[in-house]
Amino acid sequence: xxxxxxRQMKDGTREEYLFLEHLxxxxxxxxxxxxxxxxxxxxxxxxxYQVTRLEHSLQAAARAEADGADKDMIIGALLHDLGDxxxxxxxxxxxxxxxxxxVRAEVTWIVHHHxxxxxxxxxxxxxxxxxxxxxxxxxxxxxxCVEFCERYDQAAFDPDYPTPSLExxxxxxxxVFSRTPFDPAVIGEEHPLA
Length: 194
Hints:
This protein is mostly helical. It is about 50% helix and about 0% strand. It has 9 helices and no strands. The chain has helices at about 15-30, 30-40, 55-65, 70-80, 90-100, 105-120, 140-155, 165-175, 185. Helix 3 runs antiparallel to helix 4 (about 70-80) and helix 4 (about 70-80) packs parallel to helix 6 (about 105-120). The protein starts with 13 loop residues before the first helix and ends in a 7-residue tail after the last helix. The model has no long low-confidence stretch (mean pLDDT about 95).
């Protein structure tokens, strides 16, 4: 079979769906390579900072690693801005969607909200509320997101910070993304994202 015969999903047969599942499994084996390419593409993205978006991402991950963070948090820091290119107004949510099947829920929540939490550093320059994040003050991962932004994200624009290459993080990225998607033993208890 080269392709399915159905034109509407409801008309698909078991054989067709097994065929598609096999193709999807094969395609998904290249996920980490596509993520690595998306990270490399950040090199060409938004300018104006003293570091590229890729360097910022690498530096955020390096800061998390130096801080003794676990693999999930380091990968969250590495991929936190992956959505910048395709979703500039909701890049946090796009990045969180990418990592959600593979990391503990706390990291997904932090990446999902980091864009809002970062506003504490600059929103006042635009007449916006820098404390908008306080609506989540009672959330169990509020403080973790505050610390993520303070230690890893907002500080990662330093051209002099010793930052490893993308290849340094590749084994860790492959390890995390080789996990069974949505494994409850990895994800743990989820809390509402919104």
